[in-house]
Every structure is written in structure tokens, then in C-alpha cells.
Amino acid sequence: MILVNFRGRKIEFPRRPLIMGIININDDSFSGDGTLDPSTALKTAKQKIEEGADIIDIGAESARTNRSPISVEEEIQRLSTFLEKWKNDFFDKIKPRDNLQIFPPILSVNTWRYEVAEFAIQNGCELLNDMGGASDLKNVGLCVESGCAYLLMHIIGLPKQNHSHIHHNEILDTLMNFFSEKIQTLNQQGLSSEQIILDPGIGFAKQPQDDIKICAFFSHLKKLKRPILLPLSRKGFIGRALNSEEAKLRDPGTIGAIVATSCHGAHLFRVHNVKATWQTLKTLSLFLNWENC
Questions:
Q1: DSSP codes, 118-174
Q2: pTM (2 d.p.)
């Protein structure tokens, strides 16, 4: 059994994989589904919850390296209205899709800046999706103090910098070494292992063959005894397989990758298309015994 503590809410694995629905409160998402309008973002979040999302992951700045960074102040401002509305009777007219959905859903913030993470956690976030790979241990301290869960992403260098030139001799060994060292560091900072989720960082500082190998053999990472999130949705390696430049057209390929990795015990999926993902996992539950994954 693997236990994850989301600010006092404890979830046990094995179980049906959790679905993390992406909400881009920005105008430069690679998948073209971002918005700067808080009302639209909230409406989209409600829709994803009704479709079966267990986690809502909000991000005010795209990780794309061909876009200039925004300021800390602007990132906080983009998040503020959403977070305020989330706290106030947001779930009154929403019902869970089935009895396995986490409800109310966990609120996650996707950032790497300490000030933004601090603001989001003060306003109710239960998971810090740190795309900085624990480069700033002050972010970890926020989770130690608040009890938030921490999503540790593999990355080389800092976000918003191009690392597409990076090559790995053996990506699985790279990930094992990175996560082993980082988990030890996080524990030394006072963060419980029960608060840690791992993200292999598909599409970041990796070649397409690395991403494919991670998906094919990611169960190797289960030796670390922490939940593994796979951010497969509409990624470049799927686009190459489908010969599709437009990210929104990659959902069928995304579902194929989710099916394959579900069979090997993935714990969480970060996706754009929650409806299709929920339907896929619901159908897979007819054939898979999640308890043995």
C-alpha cells in the first residue's frame, strides 16, 4: 500500500488512477486551451469535475520555453479570482461522477516560484506541482508547514529555459538517481515521504525516445515506493507518432498511452481531456484489478 497525504486528506494506492484536470489560466498553453478570463477558467474547472476529475491543477504561466516569463505579481493576479471563487460555495451544484472520484477534488497549483506557491497554499491549495524540480527548497518548506502534498518533477536546470539538447545515456537510471537523491533531500527538510508524488517530466530535457522508454518501463520507478504521475497528455512524442502538429488532435494517442501505462500500474494522469480519460479508466476497470496493479 502507498499512502499520500494531501493536507490531511489521505488517499491510498492501489486504486483506480487519479485524474488531474489541467486548467491553464494563461494565453500561451501549447495545447491552445488557456484563458485569461477567470470566469471561463472556473466554468472549465466545473466541467472537468463533472467529467470525473479527482484533482484540478491550475497554472498561470505556461512552461513553454519560447515564451518570456511573466512577473510574480502577474502570476498571482491571474490566480487570485479563481482561488477566491474556489473557496466560496464552488461545489454547491456539483455532484461526483461515481463513488471512486475524489470529492471535493484536490486543488493543485502548477508553479515554481515561492511567492506564488505561498499565495496559492494560503488560499486553499492541497498540492504543489513544482515544475522547478525542488530547485528552491523554500517551496518544500511551504509543504512542510502546511501539510500540502508535493509533486516532484524531473527537470534539468530551471523552467522557462530550453533543454531540448539534453541527451541521456539511460533515462531510467537518470530518473532513479534524481528521485532517490531528491527524496532524501526532501525528507531531510522535514517533508514526509507520504507527501511526495513523482513526475518523470515527460517532454522536459528529454528526447522523444526517452519519453517513450519512460512510458514503456516506468514501472521500474515503482521501486521508489511513491505514486507516479504521468503527464502524457498531447505530448510531442504522441504528435510525432500521429504525425500531428496540432496538440488538440492528439487525444486518441493520449488515450492509447493511458491504456498501456494503466496496465502497468500508473497512479495518476495529468490530462486535458478529462471526459475521455474517465471513460477509458472506467472501462478498464472491467478488465483490470486495480488492487494488483
A1: HHHHHTT--EEEETTTTSSHHHHHHHHHH--EEEEE--SS-TTS--TT---S-HHHH
A2: 0.94
Number of domains into which the chain is organized: 1
Contact in structure between 133 and 175 (CB atoms under 8 Å): no
Among residues 238, 235, 232, 234, the alpha carbon closest in space to that of 248 is found at 234
CATH number at residue 19: 3.20.20.20
Q: What is the pLDDT of the chain when averaged over all its residues?
A: 91
Strand order in 149-153's β-sheet?
196-199, 149-153, 127-130, 106-111, 55-59, 18-24, 268-271, 229-230
Query: Which residues, including other chains, have CB under 8 Å from residue 46's CB and lie 6 or more apart?
Result: 90, 94
Query: For residue 271, which phi and psi values (nearest 5 degrees)?
Result: -140, 160
Range of the domain at 31: 2-292
- Asked whether the predicted pLDDT for residue 79 surpasses 90, the reply is yes
Length of the chain: 293
Can you tell me the distance from the alpha carbon of 108 to that of 4, in angstroms, rounded to the nearest whole number?
A: 14
